[in-house]
Every structure is written in C-alpha cells, then in structure tokens.
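Table S4 entry, NAD(P)-binding protein.
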Amino acid sequence: MSSSKGVAIVTGSAQGIGRGIALKLAEDGFDVAVNDIPPQKARLDEVVKEIEAKGRRAVAVTADVSSETDVKAMVETVVRELGGLDVMVANAGIARYSSILETSVEDWDKINSINLRGVFLCYKHAAAQMLSQGRGGRIIGASSMAGKKGAALSSAYAASKFGVRGLTQSVALELGKAGITVNAYAPGPVEGPLLDAGIRSMNDTIAKSGGSTDLKAALLGMTAVGALGTPGDVAALVSFLASKEAKFITGQTISVDGGINFD
C-alpha cells in the first residue's frame, strides 16, 4: 500500500454522488471514511470493499448528519480508526418539491436539517479537528444549481442550498489563515437516486395540479452540453478541491451543471 495523502470523510456516500466522490478520493490516495444513515449500512460496507480493493484503508460510520451528537461521534471515530482528518466532504442531502402553499413546516425543517444544518455540523466539527491538528485541511460542501438560481416548487430545497453558499463563504473567512480552505460544489442534473427521487417528487406535485411534463427532457434542454451529468463529473471537481493544488481557492461554490448557470 502506498503512503496515504490523508484521511477523508464523505457523508451520504452509500450511493450516487457521494459514492462517486469516495471512490475518486481513494483513487487519489486518501484513506476514506464513508457515511450514511443506518438503513444504508449494507451499501456502505460494499463501498468500503471497493475502496479497499483500490489499496486504501476505509471505514463505514453510520450517522445522521442533522444530529450534532452523531456528527461529533463520527469525526471522533474516524480520527481514532484512521488517524486524523484532512478532507471533509459534507455531501449528504435530500430533495423534496412542492408549492410554497403545500410545503409544511415539517417538510421545511426536514430538508433544512439535512441539507443545511447537516453541512454546518460537518463544517464545525471538521474545523475543530483540523485546527487541533495544525496541518490545514479541506472542507467541501454540497450546494446545487438550485443554490445559484431558485425554481418553482423548490422553495425549501433552494433555501437550503443557497444557505450552504453563505455558510461556505463565512467559514472560509474564519479558517483561511489556518490553511483550511472551504468550498462547495453546485451540481446540476446528475444521474442517480437523488435526481430520480426529485423527479418523482416534482411529477407528483405537477400531477396534483392536473399538469404533466417530461422533466428529464426539460432538464436536458436546460444544459449547454445537452447531457445529464454523472457522479464522476462531480467527483472530479471535488478531487481537485481536495488537492494541495487548490490551496488558493476558498469561499467558492463552483457549478458543475453542464452550463445551466453561468457566474
């Protein structure tokens, strides 16, 4: 086994974008802790096997990122098992879509508890560990194309993803002089379970109003490249942000959306 580039945590990594990021960081030479909620433990164990097959150490840690107790314990477990923390990828997120009139307080709170509070808690406890180590680090969070431009039926989701941008900018200013960069990625439509769940949710909402549309075709039509993304497209960006070459990039939320939003 070659020497490790460091230790990374990737939340929400049992499948989809998170799994892609975890495997890419392992290919880059990081030892990787994969995280998801307890019902995803079997899938996490499979990702651990895939990482170990690449010659890297790996550990699966189940935790609910909306719980500070869980996030703190997750970081402590990873430090104990793998020896430290150099990269935190706060990827876990959920998507639900409804009109503002039909968005319940419970749905609002659930979406924001995972997509925004979960990112905040990962940033907070990763920062504490990285500062105690004194060797810098990389903190990376999941925003969205909906965090660059809002959309109908997306009030709670867009608010959570816009929030990640503000959080990322603020924490970058706090941690930069310690050699810790803080950035986010803003995916567009990426093939996988989150997109499928989002399309089902939006189709249900549109159907209730008597409408219908081919949402996947509509998303394709929004992109400049005429294609949906893959988890590997997002993982490639995260790979660079996690690298030593990205030391002069911080506070940014970078679109990886096939040309839907232009900064």
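The mean pLDDT is 95.
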